[in-house]
Design goal:
This protein has helices at residues 5-13, 19-38, 40-46, 51-68, 76-89, 99-107, 128-131, 134-145, 159-170, 185-189, 201-207, 235-245, 301-305, 318-324, 329-344, 355-377, 393-401, 406-415, 418-429, 443-464, and strands spanning 110-116, 121-127, 149-152, 173-178, 190-193, 196-199, 209-211, 217-219, 223-228, 252-254, 257-259, 262-264, 270-272, 276-282, 311-313. With 465 residues, the chain is of the alpha/beta class. A hairpin with a 5-residue loop joins β7 (209-211) and β8 (217-219). The chain is extended, with a radius of gyration of 32 Å.
């Protein structure tokens, strides 16, 4: 049976204790008091409202320990100074940190990575958390292999964000070609307009330059060509892209020289390939017709072949969303539930929850709180605010739900407990608001959010394992 330190002291001080038991008890007491002395600072750090009692108990244990070792006239002030002196020179090692803190530090650790290819070398500062995502690793591998990549997934899953993030990692310009039935060869290769010659997006990305607002050509170090919503492009127009996409690996070698592939613009000028990575996005695979996305065309199999082996289904990254919605867990949790319900009842063709909606809702609430807090301070005085009835979160959500037809709207609002969310908002309205660092999170909400994030991470990892 384990004994606490007071029980051990009682045995040591009891004159009836046998010599054998006294030796054992004294040894156990010494070990326990040494342990208390060693972890004293940790107890002080972890204590909250009872920090001072914990400190005093630790100091008293250390004092008695030292006196038993023959050091007399030791005061608590002496021990305090000794502790402070030791802490001032002692460095905290990785082994001193908890597993949770280690995981957090590793996920946000700033790193520098260098990517080297045949004629490309780029060095970028980022974090482990971004760099080590499974999809990031695959896409960077595709960059090195000069593979065209295709990202598909439901609306609001962050496909465009991923492409832009890869551009930031590479330090390259993201050049976007918005694909739809009206996309023309002029948009892709360039051509003459009533305002003069317009250069094509493919040409600029291929040869690493952009045209600024003044019409001046500006060289760039590399380009990520984002073919946004590729399934919506007319199949005949897609043939122009198809030809260029087939050439991205067509390098030749002559007399020790690398000869890059070329394409021609609307003026029939020749442009050699420089630093280019092509990412296309869509709601469905290219060779698919989905009734939820009526504007899609079923593309030729040869276009699908340009992305073969590098076609990835994209899922929402909850952790990234939650980090952006820091301090507003109640909004994020509710909108994630709304998103999942919309997907469950197959209503994404009417409206969907995106990161943009989350941010808009958060910013609306911040404006609401800033204005209402000012109005409360001005109570009884003439208001100087131009807006006295600011838009609320409920106004935002009512507007969003209004995009759905009657039956799905009622189903969504009932199943996500919209009335319960309204009650939560009323509670948040009573919480203090710090505009410099707003934080409305409760421990229960943070716990719920972490559970949702971990489940999402497991699902994503399973897809890319």
């Amino acid at each position: 049976m384990a004994m606490n330190i007071e029980q051990l002291r009682a045995i040591v001080n009891d004159p009836d204790t046998t010599p054998e038991n006294l030796a054992i008890a004294q040894q156990m007491l010494d070990a326990e008091e040494t342990r208390l002395a060693n972890i004293g600072s940790a107890r002080i750090q972890s204590a909250t409202g009872d920090a001072e009692p914990a400190l005093l108990a630790t100091l008293e244990a250390m004092k008695k320990l030292l006196q038993q070792k023959g050091v007399a006239n030791i005061s608590q002030a002496d021990i305090r100074r000794a502790i402070n002196d030791e802490l001032s020179i002692r460095k905290i090692n990785m082994s001193d940190l908890s597993p949770d803190l280690l995981q957090f530090l590793n996920s946000t650790r700033a790193v520098t990575f260098t990517l080297k290819m045949m004629n490309i070398s780029t060095t970028t500062d980022t974090t482990d958390e971004i760099l080590n995502r499974p999809l990031t690793q695959r896409l960077l591998s595709d960059v090195m292999a000069r593979n065209n990549s295709y990202l598909y997934g439901g609306a609001g899953t962050g496909k465009t964000f991923i492409a832009e993030e890869i551009g930031r990692l590479l330090g390259w310009e993201v050049i976007t070609l918005n694909c739809n039935q009206f996309t023309s060869p002029l948009d892709i290769l360039g051509g003459q307009t009533i305002d003069g010659y317009q250069e094509g997006k493919l040409i600029m990305a291929w040869n690493n330059f952009v045209i600024d607002n003044s019409g001046t050509k500006k060289e760039i170090s590399g380009a990520v060509l984002l073919l946004d919503e590729l399934p919506k492009i007319d199949p005949n127009t897609a043939g122009i892209l198809n030809d260029a996409l087939a050439k991205v690996k067509s390098y030749r070698f002559k007399d020790g020289q690398v000869i890059p592939p070329t394409i021609r613009n609307g003026k029939n000028e020749v442009f050699p390939l420089k630093n280019l990575f092509v990412i296309a996005t869509g709601n469905v695979p290219l060779n698919t017709i989905d009734p939820d996305y009526e504007a899609n065309f079923k593309q030729d199999l040869s276009l699908q072949d340009r992305f073969i082996g590098s076609t990835y289904e994209i899922f929402v990254d909850y952790e990234n969303e939650y980090s952006i919605m820091k301090g507003f867990a109640f909004i994020w949790i509710f909108l994630v539930k709304v998103r999942e319900k919309i997907k469950e009842i197959r209503a994404t063709n009417q409206a969907f929850v995106s990161l943009r909606l989350m941010i808009n809702t958060r910013e609306t609430y911040k404006v609401y709180r800033e204005i209402t807090d000012k109005l409360k301070k001005q109570r009884g005085k003439i208001s100087t605010e131009a807006i006295t009835q600011p838009k609320t979160i409920i106004d935002t959500m009512d507007n969003f739900f209004g995009l759905f037809k009657d039956v799905p709207r009622r189903t969504i609002m009932q199943d996500v407990d919209y009335d319960g969310f309204k009650a939560i908002v009323e509670q948040k309205n009573k919480m203090p608001y710090n505009p410099d660092a707003p934080d409305f999170n409760t421990p229960d909400e943070e716990r719920t959010a972490r559970q949702m994030i971990e489940k999402n991470k497991q699902e994503i990892a399973a897809r890319y394992s």
